[in-house]
Write a structure and sequence with these properties.
There is one protein chain. Helix content is 36%, strand content 13%. By secondary structure, it is α/β, with parallel strands linked by helices. Strand 7, helix 8 and strand 8 form a beta-alpha-beta unit. Helix 5 crosses helix 7. The radius of gyration is 22 Å and the shape is globular. The mean pLDDT is 95.
């Protein structure tokens, strides 16, 4: 392409340093109000730009891509997950899709570990009692008792980069590491973590004290934790999800928590987000769940690094080369 600056539309507010650099390098239209674009606005952007920089909340399906203009050649997603984009449809139209991998692993693993601690130890319940101004009569040997996590079994669903990072943290807290994955991790990692591989997800679920969901959302993992599978878990068990809400059947999970078929849940993602099921909010108020507003990757450092990856992908494409973080059909 020519050396003229490409027209880039950024769908959400990004860190100032990232936006400033984008304005220097590209003819960039920014979203200073951070208002999510409506579908019609996204379609209009697809018709006019050279590069679209969406986020994980922007749904770009085949019908929308069918209306894209001839100039659109790159969708540089601000995020690791690309389940918001129809990758096959994009490539059929000659549009390259990129993401921002290997940036948010440690941040998401930190948040996962925080929820693994928060749910059994009732951290948010305790914090809310003091924050509400409710009278506290002092320490008592039988008040606000939670559950020890040291020595418990942690079952990780999806032992990729994030799952492995969670396992390293959990091992340091004295948890026994178990995991289910499409295939076992390399022997060196398995030995380092003293991890036990389960080829049967059903068998692992039935034996764990805590389950951590760390797999991507794909057609194959939609409701992977189904009603049937949730019922396999022990009533003393906890479940934590920092991956995607669609991996768990949320309605079935709520029913399990309401009936005390599960001891608790820590959730950073939801099926219908940004809408939260009122029943989940009620369970959180009752101390049966800890719910967070999709904060797993929310660090300043992480967001800036994501933006830098987006810029590198666009500049590499401008130079006529294949961007380093291309997402190919069938790779997710």
């Amino acid at each position: 392409m020519s050396k003229a600056k490409p027209h880039v539309i950024v769908t959400r507010k990004l860190p100032d340093a990232v936006e400033t650099r984008m304005r220097e390098l590209f003819r960039a239209d920014l979203n200073l109000e951070d208002r999510p674009l409506a579908q019609a606005e996204l379609v209009e952007a697809l018709k006019t730009v050279d590069v679209l920089v969406p986020t994980v909340t922007d749904r770009i399906d085949a019908s929308m891509l069918a209306q894209s203009g001839p100039r659109l050649k790159l969708i540089a997603n601000f995020g690791n997950g690309v389940d918001n984009i129809d990758i096959d449809a994009a490539y059929e139209r000659g549009i390259t899709v990129t993401n921002t991998p290997n940036v948010l692993t440690e941040d998401t693993a930190d948040m996962t570990m925080a929820l693994i601690l928060a749910v059994p130890r009732r951290l948010t319940e305790g914090a809310q009692i003091l924050a509400s101004g409710e009278h506290w009569s002092g320490w008592s040997p039988t008040w606000m008792l939670g559950h020890r996590i040291w020595g418990k079994r942690l079952g990780i669903v999806g032992m990729g980069r994030i799952g492995t990072a969670v396992a390293r943290r959990a091992k340091a807290f004295g948890l026994s590491i178990h995991y289910h994955n499409r295939r076992p991790v390399d022997p060196q990692t398995e030995e380092e973590l003293e991890a036990t591989y389960w080829d049967s997800l059903d068998q692992m679920l039935a034996r764990m004290d805590i389950i951590s969901v760390n797999c991507p959302h794909t057609p194959a993992t939609f409701h992977l934790l189904s009603r049937r599978r949730l019922k396999l878990m022990r009533p003393e068990a906890f479940i934590v999800n920092t991956a995607r809400g669609q991996v768990i059947d949320e309605t079935a999970l709520i029913e399990c928590l309401e009936s005390e078929a599960l001891a608790g849940a820590g959730l950073d993602v939801f099926e219908g987000e940004p809408k939260i099921n009122p029943k989940l909010a009620k369970l959180a108020r009752e101390g049966k769940a800890v719910i967070l507003p999709h904060m797993g990757s929310a660090t300043i450092e992480g967001r800036v690094e994501m933006g830098e990856k987006v810029i590198i992908n666009i500049r590499t494409w401008m130079d006529g080369h294949k961007p380093p973080d291309r997402v190919l059909p069938g790779s997710v």
